[in-house]
Amino acid sequence: MSTAPNTFDGSCLCGAVRYEVSGTPDLFFLCHCSRCRKGTGSAHASNMFIPDGKLVWLSGEDMVTTFAVEGAQHARAFCSRCGSPVPIVRPGGRVKLPAGSLDTNAGMRPLAHIWTGSRADWDDHLEDVTAFGERPG
Ligand SMILES: [Zn+2]
Ligand SMILES: [Zn+2]
Questions:
Q1: Which ligand is in closest contact with the Cα of 13?
Q2: Nearest-ligand number for the alpha carbon of 63
Q3: How far is the CA of 124 from the centre of ligand 1 (A)?
Q4: Residue 17 alpha carbon to ligand 1 centre in Å
Q5: pLDDT of the chain along its 137 residues, tens only?
Q6: Chain centroid, CA 54 distance in Å
């Protein structure tokens, strides 16, 4: 089904944290839940999930901070300098990989929007919003 590469390289915004994840993603969700909106500051998180994925920190492992929501399954990892989301290994060995952090191609399209019942009031038909190739003006 997938032509996805089996090695994914990525980094955070400041460049301190670099990683490589290997494995085959089985899910790619755009999650609009309130926790993902808070955690990204955007309309949704964009996460690939890689069962039995192998996560290797190429640099900056000591900069990686994790946060788990108490009493929930929601957890995230991020660079403690720039705040960028980075991959995290979840229970069962599934790697959650924020697709926006990739420096290589994802190689697959998202499979679904999820938790759309929780989406922001401005998150509706965004594909219809006027588009510019770069910042206008
Ligand atoms: Zn960083
Ligand atoms: Zn979510």
A1: 1
A2: 1
A3: 31
A4: 6
A5: 555 458 999 999 999 999 999 999 999 999 999 999 999 999 999 999 999 999 999 999 999 999 999 999 899 999 999 999 999 999 999 999 999 999 999 999 999 999 999 999 999 999 999 999 999 98
A6: 16
Radius of gyration, alpha carbons of the chain: 15
Domain architecture of the chain: domains with CATH? 7-115 (2.170.150.70)
Ligand nearest to the CA of 85: 1
Cα 137 to middle of ligand 2, angstroms: 34
Residue 36 parent element (H or E) = helix 34-40
* Cα 53 to middle of ligand 2, angstroms: 20
- pTM for this entry: 0.91
Which ligand gives the minimal distance to the CA of 43?
2
Could you give the C-alpha distances from 91 to 52, 59, 96, 99, in angstroms and in order? 10, 23, 10, 20
Q: State in Å: Cα 129 to ligand 1 middle.
A: 30
Residues in the chain: 137
Distance, CA of 113 to CA of 26 (rounded, Å): 15
